[in-house]
Amino acid sequence: MSTQDQHGRGRSRPDRPRHRSARLVAAALTVSAALALPQQAEAKESDAVLTVAVAQSVDSLSPFLATRLVSTSINRLMYEYLTDYDAGDAHPVPGLATRWKPSADKLTWTYTIRSDATWSDGRKVTAEDAAWTFNKMMTDDKAATANGSFVANFRKVTAPDATTLVIELKKPQATMTALDVPIVPEHVWEKVGDFGTFNNDKSFPVVGDGPFVLTGYKPDSYVRLKANKNFWRGAPKFDELVFRYYKDQDAAVAALRKGEVSIVAGSPSLTPAQAASLQGVKDIKVNDAPGRRFYAIATNPGARARNGQKFGDGDPSLLDERVRHALFMAVDRRTLVDKVFQGHAVEGQGYIPPRFSTYFWKPSATQELAYDPAKAARLLDQAGYRENADGKRVGKDGKPLTYRMLCHATDPNDKAVGQYLKEWWGKLGIGLTLDCLDNVTDPWLAGRYDLAFDGWSVNPDPDFVLSIHTCAALPATPKDTAATDNFICDRTYDDLYARQLAEYDPVERAALVKQAESRLYDLGYMNVMAYPNAVEAYRTDQIASITTMPRKAGNIYGQDGYWSWWSAVPADSGDSSGGSSSTGVVVGIVAGVVVLVGAGVVLGLRRRATAEDRE
After folding, report:
1. Burial class (CB in 10 A: 0-12, 13-18, 19+), 328
2. What is the predicted pLDDT for the residue at 46?
3. Neighbour count for residue 92 (Cβ, 10 Å)
4. How many CB atoms lie within 10 A of CB 41?
5. Cβ atoms of residues 546 and 583 within 8 Å
6. Closest of 335, 346, 344 to residue 273, by C-alpha
7. Where are the transmembrane segments (predicted)?
8. Of 272, 267, 318, 384, nearest to 527 (Cα)?
9. What is the largest CA-CA distance in the chain?
10. What are the pLDDT digits (tens) for 534-567?
11. Of all residues in the chain, what percent are helix, strand and coil, respectively (each to 5)?
């Protein structure tokens, strides 16, 4: 729902918006006003500005609320984590913490906080900032909205001195070197009243300690950041970084051709037609690499809250596992990879993409819900949904099965795949209505859907994307928001999730993660159709180097870190150090007003709400 997973982050924090959707709905804007950057914020002509065209708007700039991939990616630039992921093989490397050590029983972790980090207002970063951040999440449910799963097992967090952070656990926790939680300055955030509504987007510059400092933001238009010259790892080579929102990706591609933006990236990736049109174009390179996302169908299992109250209007037929399995057995994943993604994807199987080989799982031949329309029809018959004289599947109440499917209006993949699903399920006698919206958040959180296109970006450590399917991730009441993806609550899955989280042995933990994936697959609430490639295009005439992740064959946008934007070197800087084999990205001065044109039509901007881009 993610970043698409996205739930990224992958986390992979999907890469889907989950908070304050009403607050993000902007009034209708003219195109020029929507993209006009304030004159006082304009870069000097000597500044190097890296401009990234994205197809996803910000849900929140508060690290306590943000879940969309674009938002969590920006948070990584603003605030350091305790540890980072190496750009080569994603192993933990020092971030705000220079080293870490567990006690013999693995229940107490001591981190040494670096002494050379400062907040952008000049104050020192201390262990107390980290302790305050975690304690706030432990004691305020609203502050735990986005990342609460990381601290649910914490017993106590203290800072004995300025460079020592101590975290005491209730039981062992395998994610202690992968706590994807932005550390914020206590002296700024202690003044915040309501963590459920504060979006960190009204006063600039925003105090941070990351490689960039947030200096400007306009909803559904742009996010502007300035290089932090005092960043402990070294200042970025680009003076400014701008994320500019384009609802229409064809318009973004046109802007790339004219040099108005540096790179067209994000999710959805470039379509095969867009990528093909840019192949061989002077000074433009297409980067096509294995992605960290999955692309799936989610079913409504009966929306409910932790207090037991049910809500929403999901079709009750989907509570029958046989019906869910029948739907998925009528999906030809190979055809989708070949025809929709045109080879820029891998056929979907388990929940974790093959890029993360340690945790990648696929069903056995006997377990797989392989494409088999005849078997799907038999399952529907067994479930009591037989065809009537008109070839329509009907239940005991005589009503035909017709499902509503949430679809992202700005994602061409959703619309293309939806047409195939209409055809395939239609042959089974099941109707399908695509409900393509700019804002899928409101109906999703309210449980007002039958099916939905879903997806998340996955982190090197899979804990977060596993956690969003636990009973603990459900909202406390129907009026609350929470980290749940689509209201799954299964005690067997919960047990497997808890066991993997407490397992330090990497081999044993991987086995438990795969068992959890197997359980999720058998339940049939999620059907992973594909693992899309990260297909991006960027200019090569204005940058000397940029780091992909993984370095050998990886993505630029939506990394598990800030390596791409921090490492990028302007072509005219005379410095090409620290780069990779992937090069490109524009240096340029941001225009005060940019007009978007797609297929010859001037386009207005509307908010994009996506379930697929949770970081």
Report:
1. buried
2. 58
3. 18
4. 17
5. yes
6. 344
7. 585-605
8. 318
9. 77
10. 999 998 887 778 999 999 889 999 999 999 999 9
11. 25, 20, 55
Q: How far apart are CA 541 and CA 539, in angstroms?
A: 6
Phi, psi for 279 (deg, rounded to 5): -65, 130
125 by DSSP, 3-state: which?
Answer: coil
Q: Are strands 295-299 and 543-545 parallel, antiparallel or unpaired?
A: unpaired
- Cα Rg of the chain (Å, integer): 23
Distance CA 75, CA 58 (A): 11
Of 533, 483, 606, 366, nearest to 9 by C-alpha is 483
Do the Cβ atoms of 52 and 263 come closer than 8 Å?
yes
**Closest to 13 in 3D by CA, of 441, 612, 535:** 612
Distance of alpha carbon 72 from alpha carbon 54, whole angstroms = 14
d(CA 165, CA 334): 49
Q: Encode 289-307: b = buried (16+ Cβ within 10 Å), e = exposed.
A: bbbbbbbbbbbbbbbbbbe
Find out whether 525 and 303 touch, Cβ atoms under 8 Å: no
Q: How many residues would you count in the chain? A: 615
Take residue 560 and report the two structure tokens written for it: 């598990």
Task: Classify residue 141 by its DSSP letter.
Answer: G
- Please state the separation of Cα 429 from the chain's center in Å: 35
Q: Cα angle vertex 227, ends 552, 91, to 5°?
A: 35
Q: Phi then psi for 126, rounded to 5 degrees? A: -130, 170
**CA-based nearest residue to 68, from 116, 21, 3, 125:** 3
Residue type, 111: Y
* Measured distance CA(154)–CA(415) in Å, rounded: 43
Is the Cβ–Cβ distance between 196 and 180 less than 8 Å?
no
**Close Cβ partners of 33 (under 8 Å, ≥ 6 residues apart):** none
Of 30-44, 241-255, 412-426, least confident by mean pLDDT is 30-44
What six digits make up the tokens of 517?
């994936």
Under DSSP, the state recorded for 137 is H
DSSP code per residue over 331-378: --HHHIIIIISTTSEEE--SSS-TTSTTT-----TTT---S-HHHHHH
Residue 477, beta-bridge partner list:
none
Task: Decide: 175 and 149 in contact? Cβ < 8 Å.
Answer: no
CA 480 centroid distance within chain: 21
Taking a C-beta distance cutoff of 8 angstroms, is the pair 356, 364 a contact?
Answer: no
DSSP 136-161: HHHH-GGGGTTTGGGTTTEEEEEEEE
Question: End-to-end CA distance of the chain, in Å?
Answer: 11
- Report the distance separating Cα 176 and Cα 168, nearest Å: 11
- Residue 171 CA, chain-centre distance (Å), reads 28
pLDDT tens for 172-222 read: 999 999 999 999 999 999 999 999 999 999 999 999 999 999 999 999 999
Q: Which of 203-207, 316-320, 609-613 has the lowest mean pLDDT?
A: 609-613
Both tokens of residue 27? 């009034």
Q: What burial letters (b/e) apply to 140-168, b meaning 16+ CB within 10 Å?
A: bebbbbbbbbbbbbbeebebeeebbbbbe
